[in-house]
Amino acid sequence: DTCVRHNLRRLKEEYLFKMDMIKLNWTDQNLIRKFYELIPNEDVIQTAKQLWQIAADELRTKEKQEIFRQCIYLKRLPNKIEQLLNNLLDHNRKTVNNSFYDEDQRVSCDSRCLKMINQCQFNLMLIYLDEFTMCLDRYEKTYQKLKDQLKKKNRENPIIYTNILIDLIEQRRQAMIQRFNRIRQYRLKTFFDQAPAVHLN
Fold first, then answer.
1. Which of 82, 80, 60, 81 is nearest to 187 (CA)?
2. Global pTM value
């Protein structure tokens, strides 16, 4: 019964997700169509594409960051870190099992190695989190720079860089955010429903 209820819940979530995506995809395509119907020049098109690409990259990075944080919270290591730690543990086992050591030396060596591995694990987590933060900060600065440039062009040449075009660029960016957030919500849910647990030391 529990398995059946779980499968029904997953089917319902999948159905709702697909229905939401139909609406969100339609909104996204409609905004793109409206943008090109205004016949923007090449510079406006390239600026819009850059802003939209930055939004997409930022949202993907946020998704990875959130998955990583959930992995830490749920003690489910990403594959790269898990593989690295397993290699260290294998090396530790080989060292400890060396017949050259007596029992006390083995215990002492094992304890030191495990402490170092745990510290390595902690440091890797911090490095990954710092990388996510730096990437997101760079995306935000790049977005603000492009946005300011677009506003300046709008003031200097409002006939080419019209308010309607600028509004549509931002509307599409907001639609992308809404769409990505819905995808991220679904992916996070399904990812942690299916991912096996990995015990951290």
1. 60
2. 0.74
Tokens 């089917």, residue? 11
| Tens digit of each residue's pLDDT (9 = 90 or more) over 5-54 | 767 888 888 999 999 999 999 999 999 999 999 999 999 999 999 999 99
Measured CA to CA in angstroms, residue 90 lies from 44, 83, 108, 170 at distances of 56, 10, 17, 52
Sign of the torsion angle spanned by Cα atoms 193, 174, 148, 57: positive
Q: How many angstroms separate the CA atoms of 112 and 115, rounded?
A: 5
| Mean local confidence (pLDDT), 63-67 | 86
Distance between first and last Cα of the chain: 35
Question: Where does the pLDDT of residue 126 fall: very low under 50, low under 70, confident under 90, or very high at 90 and above?
Answer: confident
Instruction: Round to whole Å and give the CA distance between 119 and 127.
Output: 12
What is the Cα–Cα distance from 99 to 106, expressed in whole angstroms? 9
Question: Residue 190: helix, strand or coil by DSSP?
Answer: helix
What does the DSSP assignment read for 52-121? HHHHHHHHHHHHHHHHHHHHHHHT---HHHHHHHHHHHHHHHHHHT-TTS-HHHHHHHHHHHHHHHHHHH
